[in-house]
Amino acid sequence: MNTGKKGLELIKKYEGFYPKPYRDPIGIPTIGYGATYYPDKKKVTMQDKPLTEKQASELLAEMLKVYENQVALLVRKPINQNQFDALVSFAYNLGATNLSKSTLLKKVNVNPNDKSIADEFVKWNRAGGKVLNGLTKRRKDEGALYFS
């Protein structure tokens, strides 16, 4: 399964497009649509060249393949496109390791239609130990996409 239009739009909305490297809320060099590293595994540095929007979109598409594969490996029950997209957005933002250890994934693997899954998304709204409004909104939107 590949990330659909709704998932891609959600990721782009919350990551935002940044042509030049910047530091994310916990200080990690980031570029484009939230990329912290490139397909060759090289980490983004503050000295990297700016990207065009087209390059950033291509980088995102390439990077999403990794998260799509990880979500496909972690989820053991059949899910629909919107559910897949929401989980890919979550994994892209927080990493597949966090998804793999989450109660969110445990609940998906027991019953993908369990309504309490929406609450599990929202629990992941902190960066560097602080609640961030942007993450709270993103997690709510991921939960809404998951059940749409």
Explained architecture:
The protein is mainly alpha-helical and 148 residues long. The protein has one domain (5-15, 53-146): Lysozyme. Helices cover 55% and strands 9% of the residues. It has helices spanning 5-15, 53-74, 81-94, 96-101, 103-110, 117-122, 133-146, and strands spanning 18-23, 29-32, 126-127, 130-131. The strands form two sheets. A two-stranded antiparallel ribbon has the order 1-2. A two-stranded antiparallel ribbon has the order 3-4. A hairpin with a 5-residue loop joins β1 and β2. The mean pLDDT is 97.
| Average pLDDT over all residues | 97
Residue share in β-strands: 5-15%
Question: CATH fold name, please?
Answer: Lysozyme
Write down the domain tally: 1
Largest sheet: 2 strands, antiparallel
Alpha-carbon distance between the two ends:
18 Å
Succession of helices and strands: HEEHHHHHEEH
Number of helices: 7
Task: Specify the CATH class.
Answer: Mainly Alpha
Specify the CATH architecture.
Orthogonal Bundle
Short précis:
By secondary structure, the protein is mainly alpha-helical. The protein has helices at 5-15, 53-74, 81-94, 96-101, 103-110, 117-122, 133-146, and strands at 18-23, 29-32, 126-127, 130-131.
Features:
single chain, 148 residues, mainly alpha, Lysozyme, two-stranded antiparallel ribbon, 7 helices, 4 strands, 55% helix, globular
